[in-house]
Backbone:
């Protein structure tokens, strides 16, 4: 495998070409995905899968992340976001799942279960917290992560940029405005 930027860019465009059915993709998003691929800073396949799910691409797994929703603030009004998730978000998803009441109930249930040997209760509790919480979030379609920012249009979605929860809306908007001017044609 080559680590040359032009090879990685072609690879990114190839994957997006498979996942995009009616939508379009900005050069900004291709650049971001290429940089992440080169630097190994993000599992870009999580992004491809979510775009494929939004596009109903035939080779895509069902999404277990939160449904796409419009941004609510005035700066990003008119734009939508779709979560994508990687293993880096496991802890956040577990924290979101295990509120105090739910965790207390689990601890009480395991502690009271006399069929579980005492020396196995802590291990079982850890197992249920991690795997049980992770599985529950997936089943509920409530997995969180970072965002794919896009515009919904009648002709198909326009995928503009990746963004994080910690970024200022103004920073995302500035990137969107630059991205909206340049598109990559992936439908040949």
Residues:
């Amino acid at each position: 495998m080559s680590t040359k930027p032009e090879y990685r860019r072609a690879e990114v465009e190839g994957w997006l070409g498979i996942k995009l059915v009616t939508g379009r993709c900005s050069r900004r998003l291709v650049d971001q995905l290429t940089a992440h691929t080169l630097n190994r800073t993000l599992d870009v396949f999580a992004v491809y899968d979510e775009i494929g799910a939004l596009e109903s691409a035939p080779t895509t797994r069902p999404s277990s992340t939160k449904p796409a929703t419009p941004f609510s603030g005035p700066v990003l009004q008119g734009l939508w976001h779709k979560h994508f998730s990687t293993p880096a978000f496991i802890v956040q998803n577990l924290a979101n799942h295990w509120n105090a009441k739910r965790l207390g109930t689990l601890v009480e249930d395991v502690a009271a279960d006399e069929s579980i040997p005492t020396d196995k209760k802590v291990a079982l509790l850890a197992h249920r917290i991690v795997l049980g919480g992770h599985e529950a979030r997936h089943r509920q379609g409530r997995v969180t992560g970072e965002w794919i920012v896009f515009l919904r249009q009648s002709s198909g979605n326009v995928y503009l940029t990746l963004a994080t929860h910690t970024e200022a809306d103004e920073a995302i908007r500035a990137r969107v405005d630059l991205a909206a001017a340049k598109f990559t044609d992936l439908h040949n």
